[in-house]
Design brief:
The structure holds two protein chains of two kinds.
Chain A (H helix, E strand, L loop, with lengths): L1 H15 L2 H8 L3 H14 L7 H22 L3 H9 L1 H32 L4 H18 L2 H14 L2 H8 L4 H9 L7 H12 L4 H14 L6 H31 L8 H12 L1 H34 L13 H19 L5 H27 L2 H4 L6 H26 L5
Helix pairs in contact in A: 2-8, 2-12, 2-13, 3-11, 3-13, 4-12, 4-13, 4-17, 5-6, 5-15, 6-7, 6-14, 6-15, 6-16, 6-17, 7-15, 7-16, 8-15, 9-13, 9-15, 11-19, 12-15, 13-14, 14-15, 15-16, 17-19
Chain B lengths: L5 E6 H4 L3 E3 L5 E4 L2 E5 L6 E6 L6 E4 L3 E5 L2 E4 L8 E3 L5 E2 H5 L3 E3 L5 E4 L2 E9 L2 E10 L2 H9 L12 E3 L3 E2 L8 E3 L1 H8 L2 H10 L5 H7 L2 H10 L2 H10 L2 H10 L2 H10 L2 H10 L2 H11 L6 H4 L6 E3 L4 H11 L8 E5 L5 E6 H6 L6 H4 L7 E2 L4 H11 L3 E5 L5 E6 H8 L9 H9 L4
Parallel strand pairs in B: 2-8, 11-17, 18-19, 21-22
Antiparallel strand pairs in B: 1-13, 2-3, 4-5, 4-10, 5-6, 6-9, 7-8, 11-12, 13-14, 14-15, 16-17, 19-20, 22-23
Helix pairs in contact in B: 5-7, 7-9, 8-10, 9-11, 10-12, 17-18
The chains are: A mainly alpha, B alpha+beta.
Chain lengths: 414, 429
């Protein structure tokens, strides 16, 4: 008699699953994979311990987004505009348009790089990918889009396979994951900041809350949504660990240094075999494509919420024209710019990093203020303990992001 | 001076942040927010929030003048001229500015970029109302810059406050009421077309904006699948109220399509009399005269005079589907004769009914196929035909449009101009 109840619960949970898992996984985008690869190749297993506190930080911040979406039925941009007025949200809006355009360009660069491993020219791979992500969102319903995003999230496990094929020493991996390890070496610190500083990005907070609202999750289902967030953040960190492990077990062991994720995939070929390299490259392609869809989507949601236009994947083009035009513009611009010859990718990335760094403290502090507003949240405001953890996370994230920004602008500072 | 009336309009963005001075020239504070009471069409300003963190307001009657330098009070400021914010009062900046405006379907349209105030100085007191919402880019730029943008080409887009519905909760969205009024003036068949065009999840919300009578009439016009879809989504209480208002034959058809459990639940919630009628109709198999008929007709007594008959019609006609044919029954409900409304009103008031009525009555049996019913109606050129059982007892009537609906069930592919017109009309004054 007990079994059916459990099955029912599992099915119900699967129906809630989505926003949390998707948002967390997009954290492992082209930029993230590059950082993890470089970290693994340069420092071996020494960085693995970072991922445990990262699980907590990601959970705390994303859970607040889900809770606000479920309780208020409004997106983060909605709430910020309604509480703090128009100037602030326009500032955030402009910043996020620029940074997510920069990131979208980088994602399409990831698409191009990964497909070049499979000998596919970027002038084919990038337009085809752009068309695919555009078609998916414009023609799809929310449910279908979410399913495809969830499949994309599952495909991240290609990195787990890649990591296993690289045959690491598991006892060391396990030990390093639970042992904090500090080194006051400038390169090590810079890597640490790079690793953690990109974990929480402002656009993620806007996306997760909008997705919760569009999915129609309410206070009743919200407890299960929290599980969605937990599954997401654990998943994303497992994948990240395996990327580091794959590079540590092969590249670091043989003293090969790399600069990009594509380098990592190419370098894996002779050391761990063709399959490991191809799984790695496929993972990069999947991650880039996935993020190339979510980033513009998140920005379109944000702008429409801020200005009060109808938005949503479930709407038709006639119902939400502004939303779809924005999405189209961002995808076309992101894919188009990367195809221009001689485009300076590194400065573009640098500046989106800087803008993110400026916006993140703002977004986190406003989130904390909003979630403690009884007029909005009623009994669902943060508890005292949660507030303590959330503020600590926020302060640490702000410090690390600021350091990352400073370090990006002045690379020789440390 | 006393009789001079001054009036004007200004935007709240220009007023917020203005310094407040009292009669002694002392600075009291700045305009932080306005308190309004939204009890009429236009919310009226009751006071000014002047200090940060404080919930006190200065009453609007204390204002003497307003100019570029600031806002001047009539008297020297002291604590007694302030009062607490009443719970019915709304703060404009906090609860109305930047709010989302949605249409009747709940679709997002725009945000409140700025709010226009109309002020009128009568005798010595200011009367300030919120007159319109600025939803345009011009309002947006004005808010950011803090002054009116000097771009001539940018049009001003205002939505008059009369088109907004008072908000129920402080955090709720602002709702356009313009369309709601228009809908209730439409013909039920036009509303039915709008319903059919909406997505299934939007339909219940739409139905909820109509009054029960209009909802029932409109629902009677949409196809059966849509009816079922809507009733299933509405809460049972509301659904049963609509069903009571519908013609019993339509209600019976609709309930027959629902699951057993749901239809029983709804029948229980309906008024017992109406529910009994509907339940009886549901007993008849589909496509029979019994399933098509309605028990709401006008029955007269053999011994009535014409005047008495007219009085009875006046009292009961509201519930009947058709009053042009009047049926004469005996105590056991056996059909004795029929007369038309024309025959009745042309007769002398004192004439007994038995002298006016025709004893030869065309009837159908409750088990007859609907095609036979149609044939009968066409052949004898009737507006309605009575339905009787084997013993000649009258059960109900079938009107010509009930039969027509069985041969022309759907009105699909008809352009619903009214709907498109309404969508286009939004946002313009």
């Amino acid at each position: 008699m007990r079994k059916p109840a459990i099955i029912k619960k599992v099915i119900f949970f699967l129906s809630i699953l989505g926003p949390g898992v998707i948002t967390a996984n997009v954290d492992n985008d082209a930029g993230g994979i590059t950082t993890y690869s470089v970290a693994g190749a340069t420092f071996g297993y020494q960085m693995l311990w970072v991922f445990l506190p990262m699980v907590l930080a990601l959970f705390v911040v994303q859970e607040m987004g889900v809770r606000m979406g479920a309780v208020t039925g409004k997106g983060l941009a909605d709430l910020i505009r309604e509480k703090y007025g128009v100037r602030l949200i326009l500032f955030a809006m402009l910043g996020l348009i620029l940074s997510s355009l920069g990131n979208t360009i980088a994602e399409f660069a990831g698409v191009a790089a990964s497909m070049e491993i499979f000998n596919i020219n970027r002038y084919i791979s990038v337009p085809v990918s752009a068309l695919a992500v555009w078609w998916l969102v414009v023609k799809g319903t929310y449910q279908r889009v979410e399913k495809i995003f969830l499949i994309a999230s599952a495909l991240y496990f290609s990195y787990v396979i890649s990591g296993i094929l690289a045959a690491p020493s598991w006892d060391v991996v396990l030990k390093e994951t639970v042992t904090p390890h500090f080194e006051f070496d400038s390169q090590y610190l810079a890597m640490l900041i790079g690793l953690v500083g990109t974990t929480i990005a402002p656009w993620m907070q806007f996306y997760i809350q909008s997705a919760v609202v569009e999915k129609g999750i309410t206070v009743k289902e919200y407890k299960l949504s929290r599980l969605d967030v937990i599954v997401g953040v654990i998943m994303v960190n497992i994948v990240a660990v395996f990327i580091v492990v794959a590079c540590a077990a092969t590249l670091h062991k043989n003293g090969i240094s790399i600069e990009t994720a594509k380098d990592a995939a190419s370098a894996l070929m002779p050391l761990a075999g063709r399959w490991a390299a191809e799984f790695f490259a496929f993972g990069l392609f999947n991650a880039s494509l996935f993020a190339a869809s979510i980033l513009p989507l998140s920005t379109a949601y944000l702008i429409c919420e801020a200005l009060g236009f109808e938005a949503g994947v479930d709407k038709t083009w006639e119902e939400a024209p502004v939303f779809y035009w924005l999405y189209t513009f961002l995808v076309v611009a992101g894919a188009g710019i990367i195809l221009l010859p001689g485009i300076p990718l590194i400065p573009i990335m640098l500046w989106s990093q800087v803008i993110n760094g400026v916006l993140l403290p703002l977004v986190l502090v406003f989130m904390l203020d909003l979630i403690n507003d009884r007029d909005l949240m009623g009994e669902h405001v943060n508890s005292r303990v949660f507030n303590l953890i959330a503020w600590t996370t926020t302060v640490i994230m702000i410090i690390l992001t600021t350091l990352l920004v400073i370090f990006s602008i002045f690379p020789g500072l440390f | 001076m006393n009789n001079i009336i001054t009036q004007g309009e200004l935007f709240i963005s220009a007023l917020l942040g203005k310094k407040i001075f009292d009669a002694a020239g002392q600075k009291v504070g700045t305009v932080r927010d306005l308190a309004v009471l939204w009890d009429g069409v236009y919310p009226r300003v009751t006071g000014i929030k002047y200090a940060k963190g404080s919930q006190k307001i200065i009453g609007v009657s204390e204002i003497d003048t307003l100019d570029k330098k600031g806002l001047f009070l009539k008297n020297t400021f002291d604590k007694t001229m302030t009062k607490d914010l009443h719970e019915d009062e709304l703060l404009v900046k906090k609860w109305l500015l930047d709010k989302q405006i949605v249409d009747i379907k709940g679709s997002k349209l725009v945000r409140v970029n700025d709010i226009q105030l109309s002020w009128l100085k009568r005798k010595d007191t200011f009367e300030i109302m919120l007159s319109a919402v600025d939803v345009g880019v011009r309002g947006l730029i004005r808010r950011i810059l803090g002054y009116e943008p000097r771009i001539e080409r940018l049009p001003l887009s205002l939505v008059g406050w009369q088109y907004l519905e008072p908000i129920r909760a402080r955090t709720a969205n602002l709702k356009l009421s313009e369309a709601t009024d228009k809908f209730s003036k439409l013909h039920p068949a036009d509303i039915a077309e709008i319903i059919e065009e909406l997505d299934h999840y939007e339909r219940p919300d739409f139905i909820s904006t109509l009054d029960t009578q209009t909802a029932a009439e409109a629902l009677g016009e949409v196809d059966l699948d849509t009816q079922v879809n809507i009733i299933e989504q509405l809460d049972s209480e509301h659904a049963s109220r609509i069903l009571v208002e519908m013609a019993p034959d339509e209600a019976a058809d609709l309930l027959g399509e629902l699951g057993r459990e749901k239809s029983d639940e709804l029948l229980k919630l309906m008024e017992p009399e109406e529910a009994e009628d509907v339940r009886e109709l549901m007993e008849y198999p589909e496509h029979t005269a019994g399933a098509l008929m309605t028990p709401e007709f006008i029955a007269l007594d053999l011994n009535m005079t014409a005047q008495e008959a007219i009085d009875k019609i006046r009292a009961t006609a509201h519930a009947a589907e058709m009053i042009y044919y009047l049926y004469v029954l005996d105590e056991s409900e056996k059909l004795l004769g029929v007369l038309s409304l024309r025959e009745l009103i042309m007769a002398q008031p004192s004439t007994p009914i038995r002298e006016i009525m025709q004893e030869r009555v065309i009837t159908v049996l409750s088990g007859d196929d609907h095609r036979d019913v149609l044939e009968t109606i066409v052949k004898y050129d009737l507006i309605a035909v009575p339905v009787a059982d084997e013993k000649g007892r009258m059960l109900g009537i079938i009107t010509v449009d009930d039969v027509l609906n069985t041969i022309v069930p759907d009105r699909k592919n008809l352009e619903s101009f009214s709907y498109y017109m309404m969508r286009k009309a939004f946002g313009r004054r």
